Amino acid sequence: MKRILVLSLLLSLVAVSYAEKVKVRLFTNNKIDALYVSFDLGLYDLFANDSSLIEPSLGDNLSVEIKTSPTGDGVMVAVNGYSYGTYTSVSLRATDTACILCLNPRNVKQRTYEGDLVVSAFGKGNLRIINEVEFETYLAGVVQSEIYGTQSDIFRIQATISRTWALRNINKHRSDGYNFCDYVHCQAYQNRCIRPDIMLGTMQSSGETIVDKNGKLIETPFHSNSGGQTANSEDVWRSALPYLRSVPDTFSYHMRQSDWTKVIPINQWLGYFSKTHKLNVQNDSIRKELLTFSQPKRKSKILGIPLTRIRTDFKLKSTFFSVSVDPHSGDVVLDGHGYGHGVGLSQEGTIRMVSLGISYDSIIRHYYTGSQIHRDENVSVAYVNNFVTEITKIIEEDKAHPGQKKSKKDDWLGKLFRVRDRQDREEEFDPTKQEVESDYKVEW
Ligand SMILES: [Zn+2]
Fold first, then answer.
1. Do β-strands 180-181 and 21-26 pair in parallel, antiparallel, or remain unpaired?
2. Rounded distance from Cα 120 to ligand 1 centre (Å)
């Protein structure tokens, strides 16, 4: 059994070390009654109830099938079709640091992960699948799921804000028996990281977190695009936080999610305010405000109604919109900017700033007012530098020979840097095609 180190709950004192593990629930949003596991790299030991060994050294050409029991209080396990019985839980423990699992739940797209796996029943016909994985490996997977781009500073920034969020919220699912779920309620973790440039950015940010002037970890909300101005935290959630202030953000202009338009029949628009908010829409001044409302700068309300409510009810990309009436059709037209809640860091603004050569820490300070980057002295600079040197070489060789990527074919790379994958899996999984929306709810 590998030793699992429990993360300290005293977050400000946490030393981010590569040996520490977190528990992440996978496929949280799916109901899964059967899971098929195969092994992409390394050997795994299969345990029942986390203590008694069922099968050692599972690897190539073997597959484990885990299903819910008919009574819903246990899991049935079989290896290559041979059934071993029913247990409260089963676990697959990696025997090495570079081990990769390939997970195929019934009716859900395949994903790959590193580290260990613990599976138990979660009600009738549903499995609870937990990945126990090194914290930094988890973070690299989060970065790959949460942002697109090609420059390592983009990933470095995302890694720093995701690390800060994770350390601050390490107990988010404590009562459920794990640290994080794998979707936007916590942070998206849709696959293990397979890209060397994302590994590089994550590693460059090693040991870095964002703190306020008192040295405390801050909340680090982010969104796809601010539309040109970020929002105050109290205009979206309850509390006014000193580091979540509205700032002008022209860097978010002219990106994928900078602008949007939505056309709504005028009767539906006015009817909504009349029925839901009891406004007298026959009143001239009320009607005029509802049909000509404009936001040269962000506002938080229209006629006293929070724009966040309007955003939810009409499924709008943002609250940063102005209203007009199309003179031909008579429909209401919302001209909007940005995508997401607008608080904190704009991901597309970040991508633009990095492309302009603006420094990593300036970008973070632009979006989180008065914040600072804290560097943990316990993280080995030599280890980080060695990794950065080696992986930079690989990225450059990939660029020089795009047809035959070194990062895909070299066995030693996986052993050393955990980025090896089978070619077919890499081609199948393209993180740049993912949705870029990355809102999540913050509980103050
Ligand atoms: Zn969660």
1. parallel
2. 18
